[in-house]
Design a protein that fits this description.
two-stranded antiparallel sheet, about 55% helix, about 190 residues, mainly alpha, 2 strands
């Protein structure tokens, strides 16, 4: 599959995730969105708050690439590292991965009540992500290396950034679904 075709597929995945989030979680009330199955587990709202927060960290990077203002860092020029990090992150964030991961501190969701608009915020952000993909189609995202917004020592290809975003969203979408399937999940 060409990069352009894969970018189109990733863009379609974002649209599907946005639609699915609206359909599946858009009608939940604030109590349902913020309900947690256990103190150490996340609510539906926390899953989406985490995604909105982590995805937002990519926009300055995407904008700098799109506007031709991105400066290459020395660490981004180390051969093989971007491919290695990209593969590792995609594999570890895959929804089928069984290993639990802890979100970096700056990407932890709010611990208090999250606004009832969180699903709308997520859906809106998906549009912005899809626009970024569209703008990047004219470039070669397999050759552009970026630094992870989560860790300054991790680099990967721009194309992998979009792959990471999509698998990460799928992972937390499924996590949110599991919350709503809990026996004690509040009814309307």
């Amino acid at each position: 599959m060409s990069s352009r075709d894969e970018l189109q597929q990733l863009k379609e995945d974002l649209v599907t995730l946005a639609s699915g989030a609206g359909d599946e979680f858009g009608r939940l009330n604030v109590e349902q969105l913020n309900w947690k199955p256990a103190p150490e587990r996340w609510s539906v709202a926390q899953c989406f708050d985490h995604l909105v927060t982590s995805n937002a960290s990519y926009f300055p990077v995407f904008d700098s690439v799109i506007n031709g203002q991105k400066k290459s860092r020395a660490i981004e020029r180390i051969p093989l590292l971007p491919n290695l990090w990209g593969m590792l992150l995609i594999k570890s964030l895959d929804p089928n991965a069984t290993r639990k991961l802890k979100a970096p501190g700056r990407f932890q969701p709010s611990a208090s009540d999250i606004s009832g608009s969180i699903i709308e915020d997520f859906v809106e952000q998906q549009t912005k992500l899809a626009e970024s993909i569209e703008a990047i189609k004219k470039l070669n995202p397999e050759r552009i290396v970026i630094t992870s917004p989560a860790a300054s020592m991790i680099t990967y290809r721009l194309m992998d950034a979009f792959r990471i975003i999509v698998v990460h969203e799928k992972r937390h979408f499924q996590q949110a679904q599991r919350v709503t399937q809990e026996v004690k999940f509040p009814s309307n």
